[in-house]
Specification:
It is a single chain. By secondary structure, the protein is an alpha/beta fold. It is 33% helix and 16% strand. It has a single domain, classed as Glycoside hydrolase/deacetylase (TIM Barrel). The longest helix is centred in the middle third of the chain and has 20 residues. The radius of gyration is 17 Å and the shape is globular.
């Protein structure tokens, strides 16, 4: 697994990564880049994202965390990864276990290119409509599938202890279950609504308007959507033009 470097704790809710200049981007001198790394410790950070919870990450004004759900998908995820690589931007991918097993090469590419590979259940059911035991099994099956695709095996805990509920459909019992297992639950602070058909231009305007209203935060996209893959280059260039900075969230230590 790629080595990661972590930074000194500077906050109560999350561990702040030390601010640093964006690394050089050899293929693109004008790249957006990734401003800093934010170490998110499940022991201190249980749940984040104001669309789902009262609290979010301790981001500075105009800082953005990019997240993508539901992948990987052969027809769109490579285009998303190509765009992120060109701009030297790191993101977090919340994978479906079934998709990770179907496309292990893309799952491993996400990790190899320095992105955070996290979890989104096995097959995207609405978990709070299921019996609790069945929902817990579905979550655990997703953890195991992603880690098997990445590492060829799965342990008792997921290598990356980050989870996002499909449709943000949590329940107190399931939140307690994940807390007891040491998993941070990610909501979002804004989303692109890319589950609705629209042109890339319409989606770009929508997400920029929402971002300018919040002045940053955790942004939810879906790398399974062609319109998102098409919109992403212009979105990253707009972030650069409007002086937004990308923050990469990572777990506190590597288990593989």
């Amino acid at each position: 697994m790629i080595d990661r470097f972590y930074f000194t704790s500077l906050a109560l809710v999350v561990t702040w990564g030390t601010a640093q200049a964006a690394p050089s981007c050899p293929a693109n001198a004008d790249a957006l880049g990734t401003e800093r790394v934010l170490d998110v410790d499940p022991a201190k950070t249980l749940r984040v994202g104001r669309k789902h919870f009262p609290q979010t990450l301790a981001l500075r004004p105009k800082e953005v965390v990019l997240t993508f759900d539901d992948g990987p998908e052969l027809n769109s995820t490579p285009r998303v990864l190509d765009t992120l690589r060109r701009e030297c931007v790191k993101a977090s991918f919340f994978l479906l276990g079934r998709s990770a097993l179907a496309h292990p090469e893309l799952t491993r590419r996400e990790l190899a290119e320095g992105h955070t590979v996290a979890h989104h259940s096995y097959q995207h059911p609405i978990l709070n409509r299921m019996p609790v035991a069945a929902a817990e099994t579905e979550i655990d099956r997703g953890f195991a599938a992603v880690d098997k695709a990445l590492y060829g095996k799965a342990g008792d805990r997921p290598a990356t202890p980050f989870f996002r509920f499909p449709g943000f459909a949590s329940s107190p019992a399931l939140l307690d279950h994940l807390e007891q297992r040491g998993i941070t639950v990610f909501g979002a602070d804004l989303w692109a609504s890319d589950w609705n058909p629209m042109t890339p231009g319409q989606q770009l305007k929508l997400v920029l308007d929402r971002l300018n209203a919040t002045q940053g935060g955790i942004v939810l996209f879906h790398d399974t959507k062609q319109q998102t893959a098409a919109m992403l280059p212009d979105f990253l260039r707009a972030l650069k033009a409007q002086d937004y900075a990308v923050v990469h969230v990572v777990p506190p230590l590597s288990r593989h």
